[in-house]
Design brief:
homodimer, alpha+beta, Arc Repressor Mutant, subunit A, Chorismate lyase, DNA-binding
DNA sequence: CAAACTTGTCTATTGATATAGACAACTATA
DNA sequence: TATAGTTGTCTATATCAATAGACAAGTTTG
């Protein structure tokens, strides 16, 4: 055994305040089961010692998480973890919003926030195999499960082939159903590129996040079974509420 | 057209300092090509106006990125973007560290940081299909490409079946080669679960990151072609240097 | 050389962040 | 009903983060 202990301390002068870092740590500890759901957190003094900060700093972190609805503090009793497991969103050959979350939520749907027709930029044109400047339809959507926003996506389609998909989408609340109505019975996920960043202002608003939250970002291309690109999309998932489960493509 | 503009502003009182948020935005703008590599950034005054903050705040952000080696500032001339594209790490059925980055880097290898034998915890036992408490070998590794750290992984193996893998790993510098030497000629990626969080202190040190950096986290199980679990691992990738490309499983 | 434009440095002020200590308010339990 | 253990509130102080303005130092261009 070579030996080596997993440090888990705190960074000062990092541009990220200590209370925010500790809030993240508590969230992480909850998600790994270190702090059990519906049970009491260690007392504030113990947390302060554990993380090497002042009790008041821990209190700031807890206050933020209470605000976010993750914890509930009760004077004299303790601070309790509310149950809110991260959903596991499957990504594979047949990635579909609604079916993928079956069994984890009782309800889910997609809301169309906005749509427009615009010329394809470099990235979109490449993804859809069009020449730059071709007209494309852009859909801005939010995915919700049990009333909580869990995804925020921007999708582009060839405007000629999928004319009117914005109206159909608003009606059906489903990409799959909309494509089906426009003659695409089946489609496959061709590629998915994954990254992560801090949520920007519009993410914060649309996903109901607190500043400093992290979003997982996927950039994907869907194709027909014979390989023709039909949809290019960028989706943002709040990392605190969703994990992505990669399955067979 | 319903209309809707993508806001891209800044969050105050978030626990994340403005200079850190702006540094992230600049990084993002570079990665999307908004700020071209090897070209000058807009002048500080323009950036300050663009992001709605004071010039000194922008300067703090730039100072951090200069420290990280992303930018170079020259008095009187401007501030320049150094070229450093994100690597694209493929994840699929045959995910292998070395082969996946061929063509993107001239050199890559894995360093064994530490190893130990320990009883399997809940998560590891589940992943490997063992009973809790069974002895497992834990390997702590760092992946490097062209001299820059790009991954930090913890891998667990059944200690009985893969006795001595730590020594073989230290020798060969390759998981695939080590498994091969212990009788596993082929293996497949069975599952991958993906999340993201802020880098903790050990990530910062091992991956040579600045505080506040984001890491992509994958938790994966590798199995033999007949489905027997052989490796359970958690890998951390610096989001600023790596994106994950999901390919056919 | 002069003017315009850029980054670098300095001083000053304000508000947010973090630490420290003391004590109040509330709960559970011996 | 004490007592111990917990969260809540208050005051005080020091440092970091952000804004503001002025000017120095360097580069480019007319």
């Amino acid at each position: 055994m070579i030996g080596r202990q997993g440090v888990d301390s705190i960074e000062r002068r990092s541009g990220v305040s200590l209370w925010r870092q500790i809030a993240d740590k508590i969230l992480h500890a909850i998600s790994t089961g270190d702090f059990a759901e519906n049970a009491a957190l260690p007392p504030e003094i113990a947390l302060a010692e554990r993380y090497g900060v002042n009790r008041h700093t821990v209190r700031s972190a807890i206050a933020a998480l209470v605000q976010e609805g993750v914890l509930r503090a009760e004077q004299g009793r303790g601070t309790f973890v509310l149950s809110r497991k991260r959903l596991s969103y499957p990504i594979g050959a047949r990635t579909r919003f609604s079916t993928g979350l079956q069994g984890q939520t009782s309800e889910r749907h997609i809301v169309l926030l906005a749509s427009s027709i615009e010329p394809a930029g470099q990235r979109v044109a490449e993804g859809l195999g069009l020449t730059r400047g071709t007209e494309v339809i852009r859909l801005e959507t939010r995915g919700e499960a049990d009333g909580r926003p869990i995804s925020r996506a921007t999708a582009w389609f060839d405007a000629r082939r999928f004319a009117g998909i914005d109206r159909v989408m608003a009606e059906t609340g489903s990409i799959t159903a909309s494509l089906s109505r426009l003659g695409v019975d089946d489609y496959l996920r061709q590629s998915t590129v994954l990254s992560a960043r801090h949520a920007d202002a519009s993410d914060l608003a649309d996903l109901d996040l607190q500043p400093g939250a992290i979003v997982l970002v996927t950039v994907a291309v869907n194709v027909t079974p014979d390989g023709q690109p039909i949809q290019f999309s960028e989706s943002r998932f709040p990392a605190e509420r969703i994990e992505l489960k990669l399955s067979a493509l």
